Backbone:
């Protein structure tokens, strides 16, 4: 039962990642739409990283540190977006990298 709920959670996260990635890069006239999907992508990246880092056993210290370091690209992307006043393509890509690193961590950090 627990394995099936974890699979459902991973499928929902991957679907959410795909949706936010698509809507982040679609050209729209309103800048608020880009900001909303950028914020959703940042939150999704944080969620994936937290799940990834906290699901590892406590004696896997190096893998836990690697999982938490996955937030660094997202932090840089947020800093760039705040400095520019809007999410740029570079900041969006950095936030996407965080989500991809977190999703890959599900499979390769253990």
Residues:
């Amino acid at each position: 039962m627990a394995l099936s709920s974890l699979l459902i959670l991973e499928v929902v996260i991957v679907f959410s990642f795909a949706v936010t990635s698509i809507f982040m890069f679609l050209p729209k006239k309103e800048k608020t739409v880009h900001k909303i999907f950028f914020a959703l992508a940042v939150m999704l990246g944080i969620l994936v990283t937290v799940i990834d880092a906290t699901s590892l056993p406590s004696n896997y210290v190096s893998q836990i540190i690697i999982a938490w370091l996955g937030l660094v690209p997202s932090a840089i992307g947020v800093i760039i977006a705040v400095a520019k006043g809007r999410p740029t393509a570079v900041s969006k890509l950095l936030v996407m990298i965080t989500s991809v690193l977190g999703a890959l961590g599900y499979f390769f950090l253990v």
